[in-house]
Amino acid sequence: MSNPVIVVHYHEVWLKGRNRRFFLRKLHTSLRLALQGLPVNRIEPLGDRMLVWIDDSSALPEISARIDRVLGIAFYAIAQPTDRAMEVLCETAWKQVEVLRFFNFAVRAKRSDKSFPLSSVETEAAVGKYILDRLRAQNREVRVRLKDPELTCYIEIMRGIALVYARKIPGAGGLPANTAGRLTCLLSGGFDSAVAAYQMMKRGAHLTFVHFYGAGVQPGESSAYVAGELVKQLVPYQTHAKLYRVPFEPIQREIASSAPEEFRVLLYRRMMLRIAEAFARRDRSLALVTGDSLGQVASQTMHNMVAVDAASKMVVFRPLVGTDKEDIIVAARKIGTYPISAEPFHDCCPMFLPRQPALYASPEDLARAEEKLDVNELTFRGIRTASLLKYEYKSGRVEVSEVPMKAGRHNSQIAVG
Q1: Fold observed for domain 5-170
Q2: DSSP 182
Q3: Could you give the 3-state DSSP secondary structure of residue 181?
Q4: Is 117 exposed, middle or buried (0-12, 13-18, 19+ CB in 10 A)?
Q5: Taken in order 194, 338, 6, 395, is the CA torsion positive or negative?
Q6: Three-state helix/strand/coil letters over 90-104
Q7: Which of 72, 123, 125, 300 has its CA 20 to 30 A from that of 215?
Q8: How far does the chain reach from its first CA to its final CA, in angstroms?
């Protein structure tokens, strides 16, 4: 028996009209990079799908695991190539459905090669009758149901070959990676910001990450290690990423010693936005991303979020703003970030917490609270003391390297502005 072929169906790409070729090239590139190092013969665009021809069926589990993290795929299926003779088609279809449990089914045929002697409807009827007869011979109570069946057996008839499959595997959905521009995400070690990052990746955005930590970068010391592991988990969705790590405790101490207590956390967040904006401008990002959810904590009331945002000239996207914590946890489990965020670590944000934080701060309140602070110097300090890690997804593995920070022409502009 010949090796299976993976049939990949797009998600929203077919809606993109004249830009279709751009999105398909990006999806093809993502598939190619995801499957590096595996026995893949070729990836062939064909109509409204792509075919992944493989050379070794034993690699199917790893191939499937990597395809699961390719954005832009509605579903994929592991199809069996077969001869186009009707008796062979019928027997192959039977082998696909025999081991499955269902009470009704349908057969759907797609004939891209019009030289095939039977029409799609005739093919469906012939294969469907064969399957039904075999099922009844086994005394299985199954019937044909053309509308909304439990199981559908698909037959794709092409020039010289046919593909048969009966199980669709859900894909990651969304748009192909790196099709919507660059964003910079303020990544904590918690559940929310990693899920927010994934949501924006799923819409085609390419994310750079900025993480603010308290002390140490080793496991259990601070959130820096956890943030690094989160980026490793997320980077296969977009193939490469940067992580800026900013030691934030010295800045927090200065804010805590000079600013009104009730505004401390909000001033921390404003300073984080300013520093993240400097890196965002350096990397030509169009906006910032945070994991805020409305009302989840005191700093995330609507008034406070507006007051914090006033410190940045960049738009701040909050994809989780209307999402419940339970839904965020479900999403974190799905994308594999939950166990990482659940690890114990020392977060910088709870340091020097006020006893009674402000709930309804205004931009003017926070601007007055910052009057005793040298905001530009603190911003420069965060930029100067940051370190940079680069992540690259190759052959199913994530490679991490620390690279020297280079002076950016935007840094002084953002600090002075």
Answers
A1: VC0802-like (3.30.2130)
A2: E
A3: coil
A4: exposed
A5: positive
A6: HHHHHHHHCCCCCCE
A7: 300
A8: 67
Q: What is the DSSP code (8-state) at residue 163?
A: E
The answer to whether the Cα torsion of 344, 378, 389, 300 is positive or negative is: positive
Give the containing element (helix H, strand E) for 401.
strand 397-403
Q: What is the CA radius of gyration of the chain?
A: 27
Q: Which fold has domain 182-416?
A: Rossmann fold (3.40.50)
- Do strands 182-186 and 206-213 pair parallel, antiparallel, or not at all (unpaired)? parallel
Cross-strand bridge partners of residue 399: 392
Count other Cβ atoms within 10 Å, centred on residue 86.
16
Closest CA to 163 of 104, 115, 123, 103: 123
pLDDT tens series, the chain, 417 aa: 689 999 999 877 665 677 888 999 999 999 999 999 999 999 998 878 899 999 999 999 999 999 999 999 999 999 999 999 999 999 999 999 999 999 999 999 999 888 999 999 999 999 999 999 999 999 999 999 999 999 999 999 998 899 999 999 999 999 999 999 999 999 999 999 999 999 999 999 999 999 999 875 555 567 899 999 999 999 999 999 999 999 999 999 999 999 899 999 999 999 999 999 999 999 999 999 999 999 888 889 999 999 999 999 999 999 999 999 999 999 999 999 999 999 876 665 555 677 788 899 999 999 999 999 999 999 999 999 999 999 999 999 999 999 998 755 444 444 434
For strands 143-144 and 104-111, give the pairing.
parallel
267, 255 in Cβ contact below 8 A?
A: yes
**CA neighbor of 396 nearest in space, from 169, 202, 178, 236:** 236
Give the C-alpha separation, 114 to 120, whole Å. Answer: 10
- Domain residue ranges in the chain: 5-170, 182-416
pTM for the full predicted model? 0.90
